Amino acid sequence: MQLTKVLYHGLLSSAGYIILALLVIVNITFYKFLESDYQSATKAHNKAFSVITAYADESQVRAYVSKLSTNTRLVKNWNIIDKSNKMGAEEAIFLAKSSTVNLFESEQQYLLVSFASLLEMNLKPLIIFNFLFAVTCLLSITLTQRRLFKYWRVLIQLETWASRQAKDDNFKFFITTEDFHLVNTVRRLNQQRIQAKKGGQEIDHMIRSQTFLDKLTGLGNRRYFDNRLEALLQEEGDVNGAVFFIHFAPLDKLRTLQGKRATSHYVKNYASLLTPYLDDIQQSIVARLSYSEFAILIPYIDQTLVEKIASELVDKSERFVLPNNLDQGRVCYIGVKMFNQTETPFHILAEADLALRAAQLLGPSSWFMYESNNLPISEVKGSVRWRIALNKALEQNNFLLDLRPVLDFYGNVIQYEANVKMIDEEEKLISANIFMPMARKSGVIKEIDKAALNLVTEELKHQDTSKISVKIHIDSLLDRDFDLWLVKFLKKHVKNMPRIIIEVSEFDLTHNVKK
Q: Which element (helix H / strand E) includes 270?
């Protein structure tokens, strides 16, 4: 016995029983209403007929009764019997014992009035009402059954297929429509099971071919990119090249607003914008690293061409067609790393990632490049190591100011511009362009900005007239705790405030006006 069939027939039977119960309840209610109306009409007529006791003349009685009986279906017939007629009087009294005959008596006559029964009066309305109710219920059940069976049929067929599949492993199940995802999923799983069972080379080839490809764009994936970079560095001869890490920021916003499926065509279109940089002869490759990040590897390329390609990519990205509600000026960030054969893949990719973070810190769409050997190996850290290093530097206050003079036209010093540098574990100075992207990623920018302001006030104690400008990042200003700290700091050092210039990125301000 199939469970789906039992459930389906059970639903239909329940619907039939419910409608039958409704029919009974509605008929009883309708009958009670008619009965109440009938009794009210009968009482009204009895009251009217009882007035004949005031009439002595037979002609007056006949006229009155005829008038009352003309416009009603309740009175079937009536008769007047003279009391002087003993046989007629006895007959009138006998008939009055009937439930449908009422006897009214005057001084000289008996009035016999025969009323129609309740069923006799309302048989036709009851039949019409029940007929219309039954037709409505049958139409409702039929339409509901047709709509329900359209979908339920698939479950019945699916269970039938399952029982046949259990008996015959080669049984194939077909259905004409593609709208039923459960059936199609089961069919695909069964096909994959059969293919896996056969153990043929086709499925093995498919798995191998798809391992290094991004399914949506057809580009290489992260594994493919890493393998090609490693293979390039192992080639003989003087190997060099450039790695471009590209973050197309609108894809993240579109995915949040519309979902992956709705924005997949934007991913494909942007991937097609990068495919011209694929070159088998030059062995350049394009890969998709994550949902919104791409990478380009171009071997044997000089710095001039690298800069040209980076600028060209930013320009193309800014002209990419996007919905009107997205910011066209903050769409593409590119980190570039030029490398040679002496470097490791980890070192190359880490520097390219740091370059990308530095480009993101600049604000508008831009690119940033670390030239070869620009960073020592000790500075190429993962996110966890950076977080540890930054926290340790904050605890030990291992930051200092690099003051650069700002000169006027005549060479006079107007003010000093303060750039924060970090002292690492090996007591080497690390530029803000390197550690600030990781500080933002680690969520400690506001602590570094606090340290920078404190360093400025310390520096002003040793200078009497010079002004110092220091940059405060938008991440800090958008933090409520930092704002409260800044107010207290300004009140504490109110005397030095005319000599401190706080710089804020105009780009960050315009994009966070409301906040």
A: helix 264-274
Residue 385 has pLDDT above 60, yes or no: yes
Q: How many residues does the chain have?
A: 515
Strand 413-423 with 429-431, pairing: antiparallel
Query: For 221-264, what is each residue's pLDDT tens digit?
Result: 888 899 889 888 887 777 889 999 999 988 888 888 888 777 88
Token pair 């942007």 is found at 270
Q: Does the structure show a pLDDT above 60 at 16?
A: yes
Q: What secondary structure, in 3-state letters, does 391-453 show? A: HHHHHHCCEEEEEEEEECCCCCEEEEEEEEEEECCCCCEEEHHHHHHHHHHHCCHHHHHHHHH
Rg value, the chain, Cα: 48
Instruction: Say whether 92 sits in a helix, a strand or coil.
Output: helix
What distances in angstroms separate CA 306 from CA 6, 232, 339, 441, one per listed residue? 71, 18, 12, 27
CB 108 within 8 A of CB 85: no
φ and ψ at residue 322, rounded to 5 degrees: -130, 160
Closest CA to 217 of 281, 275, 257: 275
pLDDT score recorded for residue 207: 47
Average pLDDT of span 350-366: 84
* Both structure tokens of 119: 């069923």
CA gap 364, 362 in Å, rounded: 6
Check residue 55 and give its pLDDT.
63
Q: Which of 200, 198, 178 is nearest to 190 (CA)?
A: 198
CA 189 to mean position of chain CA atoms: 27
- Residue the block writes with tokens 């996110």: 383
Phi (first) and psi of residue 25, to 5 degrees: -65, -45
CA angle, 179 as apex, 255 and 5 as ends, to 5°?
A: 130
Look up residue 303 and give its amino acid: Q
425 dihedral zone (left: phi>0; alpha: psi -120 to 50; beta): alpha
What's phi and psi for 438, nearest 5 deg?
-75, -30
Tokens of 99: 């439930």
